[in-house]
Design goal:
The chain has 322 residues and is an alpha/beta fold. Helices cover 35% and strands 18% of the residues. Helix 10 crosses helix 12.
Length: 322
């Protein structure tokens, strides 16, 4: 039976790639998509999401959510994703519009009416999901897992130590990671190492379906960013789409379970995800100076070519949109 998934996005080039995958893979049942400001404004993110889903042939309901973090002013990822958030591509406008409810209400509706627990896939700042857990705490038991693209156990990208999604709304990230819902974190440590090769991009470009060709165009934009790891010489990062692949191919990603919390104090390290990989308590714990920290499954290793292969195969095998 396909895995029921709700995706929370800030579409974004790599969110768009993830949506194409989620709508294409036969083992995923994309129940809904909720939007939050991040890679672009909330209005732009919502329109991008509707337009990408139209190309993908998905009728999953879409709702707009939070325009700003819980505490801090609104801000976005600047020009990284292009002027319109999807690499300056201009897609045919979707015939659909967003649901006339806030994203938290669409999340609540889909979780409450699901016959079984739902997996929530977070590819964006965690504001919508934090609000859901605060407004409707009883729903925690109906969420199978929250899979979060966010954080880093090494270097950051929004700052020297903080990854963008967590840095954008650290308080929301801490609420989600410290909740009772099981969480899996897909951090920059693996995010940066899943790369589609030039051959794979060409295969998508030459495919018969609009969704595969759109994926190629998005990856072409990623190539122009030229931000690959030093030991990978060509191709394009899948980014958020690698997190989506994790849902159906976890065997390609190595996780370890560690305590993790978010630095909330102002200053250089705000938004850092602190992964405690010690094998014994330190003096602070022994003297009772800190409280226990929630544990998450943290993705720390990845077979990048295998993950990219799952992504490309799903797009190439997907049935044409009627």
């Amino acid at each position: 039976m396909p895995l029921p998934v709700i995706a929370d996005v800030d579409t974004g080039v790599d969110d768009a790639l993830a949506l194409l995958f989620l709508a294409s893979h036969p083992d995923i049942d994309l129940r809904a998509v909720t939007c939050v400001a991040g890679n672009a404004s909330l209005a732009q993110v919502t329109q991008n999401t509707l337009d990408v889903l139209a190309v993908a042939g998905s009728d999953a309901p879409v709702a707009a959510g939070s325009q700003r973090p819980l505490i801090e002013p609104a801000r976005d990822a600047g020009s990284y994703h292009g002027a319109n958030g999807i690499g300056n591509l201009h897609l045919p406008p979707s015939p659909r519009t967003a649901e006339p409810v806030h994203a938290t209400e669409l999340l609540r509706r889909e979780i409450e009416t699901s016959a079984g627990p739902v997996t929530v896939l977070s590819l964006a700042p965690l504001t919508n999901i934090a609000l859901l857990l605060r407004l409707y705490p009883h729903l925690a038991s109906q969420i199978a897992r929250i899979v979060v693209m966010g954080g880093s156990s090494s270097a950051g990208n929004a700052s020297a130590v903080a990854e963008f999604n967590v840095w954008h709304d650290p308080e929301a990230a801490q609420i989600v990671l410290s909740s009772s819902v099981p969480t899996t974190v897909y951090p920059l440590d693996v995010f940066n190492r899943v790369v589609a090769s030039e051959t794979q991009i060409s295969q998508l470009r030459d495919a018969a379906t609009p969704r595969a060709r759109l994926a190629a165009s998005l990856l072409d934009y990623q190539v122009t960013l030229a931000d690959l790891p030093d030991d990978i010489t060509s191709g394009a990062k899948l980014g958020d789409a690698g997190t989506a692949v994790f849902l159906v191919a976890p065997e390609h990603i190595g996780t370890e379970t560690w305590p993790v919390e978010v630095e909330l104090n102002a200053g250089f390290s705000r938004g850092q995800t602190v992964v405690d990989r010690r094998h014994r308590p330190g003096e602070a714990e022994e003297h009772g100076l800190v409280t226990p920290v929630s544990r998450s499954d943290i993705a720390l290793t990845v077979d990048g070519p295998a993950v990219a292969g799952v992504f490309v195969d799903a797009l190439l095998r997907a049935e044409p949109v009627p």
